[in-house]
C-alpha cells in the first residue's frame, strides 16, 4: 500500500485527500451512525483514484467497497444496488484483478489499456440488454424502491464493470453515468432519512474521480500506443 501511495502524482494525492475529506465530513455531519456509513465512501474514493491510475489495488478495494455498499443499500430497500454491487460489481472486480495482473504495462504497477474489439462490443450490447430486462422483473418482484432508476443503475454498473474487465478507458464514462443515477437515488432516499445526503455527496465525489479516471486512462492509452508504434 505504501509503494502504491508514493506512485501517485501530487495531483492525484490532492484529489484523494479532498475526496476523502468531503465524503468523511458528509458522513459525520449527515448523521451516519455506523462505521460502514462513514468508511464505505472513503474506501470507494480510494479505490477510484487507484483505478484511475490503472493500479490493481483499486480493484481489490472495489471488492471491499461493493460489500460495504451492498450492506448500506439493503437497509434503504435499494435491492437493485445491493444485488448489483454484491452480485455483479464485486465479483467482476475480483475477476478484473486477475485480468489486470495478466496484462501489465511497461510502467510500474499499471495495467495496459486496450480497445474493445467489434466482437466484444456486440457481446457487451447483448449482455447489457439481457441484464437490464432480467433485473427489471427481479427488482419489481422484490418491490424495489425507485424501480426505473434502480434498473438504470444496474445497466450502467454492468457496462462499467464489463469495460473495466477488458481494460477500456470507456469504463469511466459508464461509471460517471452510474454516479449520476446514484446521486438521484440517494437524493430521493434523503427525503425520508437526511443521513442519506452523505451518500449523494459520496457519489458526487465519485463522479469527479471518474471524470479524472477517463482523462488519465486516455492519456496513458495514447502513450502506450505511441510506445508500441515506436517499437514496431
UniProtKB/TrEMBL annotation:
Pfam families in alphabetical order: NMN_transporter
The name this protein goes by in its record: Nicotinamide mononucleotide transporter
Transmembrane segments: 15-40, 47-71, 83-101, 122-139, 145-165, 172-189, 195-215
Organism per entry: Flintibacter faecis
InterPro entries per UniProt: NMN_transpt_PnuC
Alphabetized GO MF terms: nicotinamide riboside transmembrane transporter activity
Location in the cell: Membrane
Chief subcellular location: membrane
Protein topology in the membrane: Multi-pass membrane protein
Keyword vocabulary terms for this entry: Membrane, Transmembrane, Transmembrane helix
Highest rank taxon of the organism: Bacteria
One GO cellular component term: membrane
